[in-house]
Amino acid sequence: MPLTDFVIADRKDARRVCDAACPSDEFNGMDAKGIDPVKLGTLHAILTNTEYDPSFATGEPLCDGGDEGPWVIEVPIDLVQRLAKLDAKQLGAVAAKWAKTEEFSPKYDNWPADAVHEVLSDLAKLCAQAAATNKSVLMWMSL
What we know:
Elements: E1 3-9, H1 14-19, H2 23-26, E2 28-31, H3 37-48, E3 63-64, E4 71-74, H4 77-84, H5 88-99, H6 113-132, E5 136-142
Antiparallel strand pairs: 1-2, 1-5, 3-4, 4-5
Helix pairs in contact: 4-6, 5-6
């Protein structure tokens, strides 16, 4: 399960995020252990009512720490904006759908629905803060 943090930062700060021992402590952010680009892609598919796109969030990392990481990627602005706009009712519905995806199933990570809801709620709040300050949301991951 990857170590994952989401932080609010400018793209130009990607190296500092990459070098941070715990990015969510050093930047405005959150710990989201176990969230990866595939899970983000399934979330985006739910929010856009489209099929999962394997190329989602697989662009060139802003910082590449090698085979074990860390890596820093920018969360696509479309996803940030969609998450920032969710109200409590929408958030609950999206969390319920997301929790039922294969990526959170016992076959893979076995996340309880309330844990998926909590991470989505925290991520939506972070995205709202990023959108309000015109900053990016960067995803830091390490194996």
